[in-house]
Structure of UBC core domain-containing protein:
Amino acid sequence: MSSPTAVKMGNLPAVKRQHLLAEFAGLKQACPQGIFVSLTPGDPSLWSGVIFVRKGPYAPAILRFQISFPDTYPALPPLVTFSTDMFHPLITPLTTYMYSTDVQDGGTASAFDEERLPPGGFSLRHGFAGWFGRGSRAREARKEARARGDQRSVERGGGEGTMTVAVTTPTRAVATATGTTPGSAASGVSAASSSASMPGYAQTGRREVSTYEVLRYIRSAFDDEDVLDSVPLEAAGNPGAWHAWRSHRKLTVEKALPGQGDSVGVGSEGGAQTEMAPATPITTRRPGEWNWEGVWEVRVKKGIAASLSEGVLFGNAGTADEVINFLNMDDAEVEGTKANLLRTLGAAAS
């Protein structure tokens, strides 16, 4: 068990600085393929990065992002923001002032929501649920309180011959990058609440998440359809993109299985497969009932083309000063640069 003194030492700025520098040095030896990161001069808590999407639904986009590490990292998550505008279920739109990571279908967001994302923010809630326990525990506590209230009302209203009915919420499994499976059982809520109130040095079973895992998950969110399929609505940074992706996947399945599209679901708000409910006369349609056909394809194609434009790649169009820059070189210049690098590496090895 770690001592309280060690925990206090871990909170010192110098120690945290060395921790981040050590993580960055490790990425020089092993970094997820297609991702390049660089430190901001004089500030190791702010990293700049570029993702080259080489496969999957967002290929061949080139995306710029930043990672800001809080003083409490790795106890609390870093903030990942994309400066490249992309229509993605986990990225909040750049034109939106503030999005809550707790937005539900038909719900509203307020300035008092628990975890909030700025424009361009990338939601890590799905991949690293352990970092976002406060909102989940609060929701589960409310559900448990309502269940107890329903149980008491049944007991009071039924008399001696009435059976007591306990209302429970089934556990829902969601695949995440860290292998965790969030549930909604009452025992899980109690354990999470007690863990939250426990001092950090006493939580010996908690595993720290490395920056490598965060980068690998971010890459998988662009090149792996299965990851996007498993994202629940409550973890989405852009609910509109979430619904558009579901519509796109449903059409893909219908084309692959002619005549079976009506019986095949591609996920619902909770990640489970459900059938369409019968039409009912309503005055206001929820976002899940809008016509999202073709929206994802058009928006993503436009975003990929913009990310590859010369103004964005070489002219820093619409972005602040970048730490990582690209040079507009022709084939001859590229070959000459590669030859110079090979000569330098050969001289260093000899």
In short: The chain has a mean pLDDT of 73. Residues 4-128+209-313 form a domain with the Ubiquitin Conjugating Enzyme fold (CATH 3.10.110.10). The two ends are 48 Å apart (CA to CA).
